[in-house]
Write a structure and sequence with these properties.
Blueprint lengths: L10 E14 L5 E15 L4 E5 L6 H8 L7 E6 L2 E2 L4 H6 L1 E5 L11 H11 L4 H14 L15 H12 L6 E5 L7 H16 L3 E5 L3 H7 L2 E6 L2 E6 L1 H6 L5 E8 L3 H8 L4 E8 L5 E7 L5 H8 L4 E8 L3 H10 L11
Parallel strand pairs: 3-8, 3-9, 6-7, 7-8
Antiparallel strand pairs: 1-2, 1-4, 4-5, 9-10, 11-13, 11-14, 12-13
Helix pairs in contact: 3-4, 5-6
Organism: Nonomuraea helvata
Membrane topology: Peripheral membrane protein
Family: Belongs to the ABC transporter superfamily.
């Protein structure tokens, strides 16, 4: 069965929705409807690396599972490479790969080679093509020479690279990557990013979900931010960042910070948000974002007077700043393409 004539986008979602019903109580059970995804619409072009970002519970994984036929939509439609996900699920599955973060999906007591042989059979890869394809993928993901070791001895990063190899066995045109670098150390995460970039350069269309903003900024051609089951904004990383480009971002590394200090900083005029992150030096890195023109340097230092301040610096707003602004409230004003 060939592709339908004129099917240009790799993925097209139109008003895609998914609701669940949950029951609670015993003596008087009640049924409640949860709207996990509410009218999501977007298009991903062939060869594009598209990011889907959002907080936990925003609807990212539910959206991906509807697109890759693991969940039926409650409403709306979705097409992958021209095939409707509900009417032609088998055709969709033949053309997609799905890689998710975590340890599930591999057999620990088998070697990487035996895992890939097993999944090649499941995916219907021709027998004569299996071993050459497996060795191509082991080379691609950097596991050549380690393929005969049991997966139970693999690091988290090696497992994730094997997950990617598994998802590519049948040479899919579209690859879904659901938080592939979760729990992976920085070195392994960089190797994963290089692998993803290499796949995209070969023409594979990729839909990526991640909580790592730097990863999304580096990899994605365009990004959709989803919150409360609704797409909030779609645009390039540069377009999303332009929405907070005029804001002031100040970083202060300080020791002895308390909750009272944070509350006082948040109460300053013009401050949009404050985040405190512990550093290795037993100090805290404060990130303060304020409206353009707000003089927060002197006010913030006044609140922190008496504490040991390691450094104070300003920086350009990042994709993380834009993301926080988008999911944090309606104050975000982007020049990005909106859905």
């Amino acid at each position: 069965m060939g592709l339908p004539h004129g099917a240009n986008p790799a993925i097209e979602a139109v008003n895609l929705s998914r609701s669940y019903q949950i029951r609670s109580g015993w003596l008087r059970p009640r049924t409640k409807t949860i709207d996990a995804v509410r009218g999501v619409s977007f298009t991903i072009e062939r060869g594009e690396l598209f990011g889907l970002l959002g907080p936990n519970g925003a609807g990212k994984t539910t959206t991906i599972k509807m697109l890759n036929t693991l969940l039926l939509p409650t409403d709306g439609t979705a097409r992958v490479l021209g095939f409707d996900v509900t009417e032609h699920p088998v055709e969709v599955r033949r053309r997609i790969g799905y890689v998710f973060g975590g340890d599930k999906g591999l057999y620990d007591r088998l070697s990487a080679l035996d895992n890939l042989r097993y999944f090649a059979e499941l995916y219907g890869v021709e027998a004569a093509r299996q071993l050459p394809r497996i060795h191509e993928l082991l080379e691609l993901v950097g596991l050549s020479g380690r393929e005969r070791e049991r997966v139970e001895g693999y690091s988290r990063g090696m497992r994730q690279r094997l997950h990617i190899a598994r998802g590519l066995l049948h040479e899919p045109e579209v690859l879904f990557l659901d938080e592939p670098s979760i729990g992976v150390d920085p070195v392994a995460a960089r190797a994963l990013r290089e692998t993803v970039e290499g796949l995209n350069a070969q023409g594979v269309t990729i839909l990526l979900t991640t909580h790592y903003m730097a990863e999304a900024d580096e990899l994605c051609d365009r990004i959709a931010v989803i919150a409360d089951g609704v797409i909030q904004v779609i645009g390039t990383p540069e377009a999303l960042k332009s929405g907070v480009a005029a804001d002031t971002v100040v970083e202060i590394e300080v020791a002895g910070l308390t909750g009272e200090h944070e509350a006082s900083l948040r109460a300053l005029s013009g401050v949009l948000w404050v985040e405190a992150e512990k550093t290795e030096a037993q100090a805290c890195l404060l990130t303060i974002r304020a409206k353009a023109g707000a003089d927060i340097y002197s006010a913030a230092l006044g609140i922190l007077a008496g504490l040991h301040i390691v450094r104070v610096s300003g920086r350009e707003p990042s994709l993380e700043d834009a993301y926080v602004a988008i999911v944090g409230g309606p104050a975000y004003r982007a020049s990005a393409e909106t859905p």
